[in-house]
Amino acid sequence: MAVRSQAANLPNCLYLETTNRCNLRCRTCIVYRGGWEPERDISLEEVRLISEQLPELERAVLHGIGEPLLNQDLPAMIRHLKDREVTVLFNTNGILLNDKRQAELIDSNLDELRVSLDAASPDGYKAIRDSDKFDLIINNLQTFAKRLESKKLSKPKLTLWFLGNKENITELPKLIDLAAAIGIGEVYMQRLVYFLDNEGFGVARSQNTLTNPDVAIYELIEQSQEQARQLGILFGASGLTAPVDSVRGKNGNRAPWKGCIRPWEVIYITAHGNVLPCCISPFSTMDYPSIILGNVFESTVADVWFGDKYRDFRKLHQTSTPPKCCRGCGICWSL
C-alpha cells in the first residue's frame, strides 16, 4: 500500500493555544521546566483570521500549553466559533472559574468544559501541582454544577480529567466519588507524557508512567471502573479507550503511531502561530524545532497544511522510524 504523504482536504478539527501563560507550575507539565515559546495570548482577530481559512471546521479545542481562562477574549472567541456552528471545548485547571467566568461561558454557548484535576485531596493536589487552590477549585465546580442544574442547562458539559501516574494513582477512586458528589457525570484518565530523548522533568519521567503497571495498579483502576459504574459515572480514558486498556502498552503493535489520524485531520497552532503535529508533540521531544511545520502568521493555513514540511512529516510518520515526537505514541500514552 502506498504511504500516505498528503492530506486531501484542509482539517476540520482545530487545536488552538489561546494562551501559553499559566497560573500553575504542575510537575507533569512542560511549563514546569519552562515553555518552548515566550508568553503570549492569541487575539480575537487572530482567531478570526485562522478560523476563516478553515471552511469545513467542525471542532475547535481552545487549549494547548497554558490556562485558557487567562485570555480575557476567550468568551468572544467561543461565540465567534459557535456562530459558525463549530463544536467548542477547552481544558482548564478551574482556579479562575468564578461566578463571572461561569456566566460568560454559559452565555458563549460553550459545548464542553474539561477540568483537569489530578488529585482528590488538598495534599494530593499540592504534591502534583504545588498549589493550595484545591478547595477553591472544588467550590467553583460545585457552584457551576448547581448553576447549570438550576437553569436546566445541558451546556457546557462538565467533565473531570485525571493525569494518572505512579505518584497520584491511589487518589483515583476518591476522584470518582468526588465527581459524583459534585454532580459531574464523566471522568477521564490520561496517560503521562514524557520526553523519550531526555531524562524528563518533574514527575514527567519514564519511571512514573503507568504503562504495563503491577497488579495492584490494575486492580485499583478496575476498582475505580466498577465504582464509577455503580455511581452512574462514565469513566473513560484519552484516546477513546477504556482506562485499563490505556495502560497495557503496545498490545503487540510494533508501530502503533501509524494508526494516528491527527497529521491528516487535526491542526495544532500555538499562541505564536507555529503549527505542530499535535498537542502531545511538545511534551514528547526536546527537539522543538523539528516539530514546527510552519507558521500561520507568516503563511496561509493552506500553504502550511499542504506544504513540504507537513508532507515530509506525514510520509515519515508512516514508516518504522517516525519523527521523534511520535516514537512513543501508543507506548507512553494512548492514541
Structure notes:
The two termini are 22 Å apart. With 335 residues, the chain is of the alpha/beta class. The protein is globular. It has a 9-stranded mixed sheet. The chain has 13 helices and 9 strands. The chain has helices at 30-33, 44-51, 74-82, 99-108, 122-129, 134-150, 172-182, 215-231, 243-246, 262-265, 281-284, 301-305, 308-317, and strands at residues 13-16, 59-61, 87-92, 112-116, 157-164, 186-191, 234-237, 266-269, 275-276. Helices cover 33% and strands 13% of the residues. Helix 2 (44-51) packs parallel to helix 3 (74-82), helix 3 (74-82) runs parallel beside helix 4 (99-108) and helix 7 runs parallel beside helix 8.
Q: Descriptors for this entry?
A:
335 residues; 13 helices; 9 strands; 33% helix
Strand order of the largest sheet: 7-6-5-4-3-2-1-8-9
Order of helices and strands: EHHEHEHEHHEHEHEHHEEHHH
Overall average residue pLDDT: 92
Shape designation: globular
How many strand elements? Answer: 9
In angstroms, what is the radius of gyration?
A: 19 Å
Helix/strand class = alpha/beta
- The number of helices is 13
First-residue to last-residue Cα separation:
22 Å
Summarize the main sheet.
9 strands, mixed
- The low-confidence runs, each spanning 5 or more residues with pLDDT under 50, are none
Strand fraction equals 5-15%
Helicity range: 25-40%
Concise description?
By secondary structure, the protein is an alpha/beta fold.
What secondary-structure arrangement, pairings included, does this model have?
Layout: E1 13-16, H1 30-33, H2 44-51, E2 59-61, H3 74-82, E3 87-92, H4 99-108, E4 112-116, H5 122-129, H6 134-150, E5 157-164, H7 172-182, E6 186-191, H8 215-231, E7 234-237, H9 243-246, H10 262-265, E8 266-269, E9 275-276, H11 281-284, H12 301-305, H13 308-317
Helix pairs in contact: 2-3, 3-4, 7-8
